Amino acid sequence: MKIAVLALQGGVSEHINHLKSLGCEAVEVRKAEELDGLDGLILPGGESTTVGKLLKETGILEKLRKKILNGFPVWGTCAGMILLAKKIENDESRHLQTMDITVRRNAYGGQINSFLVEQKIEQICSEPIPLVFIRAPYITKVESNVQIICKINNNIVAARQGNMLATSFHPELTNNLEMHKYFLNMCRENFSDLYELS
Ligand code: GLN
Question: Which residues bind L-glutamine (predicted)?
Answer without folding.
Answer: 46-48, 105, 134-135
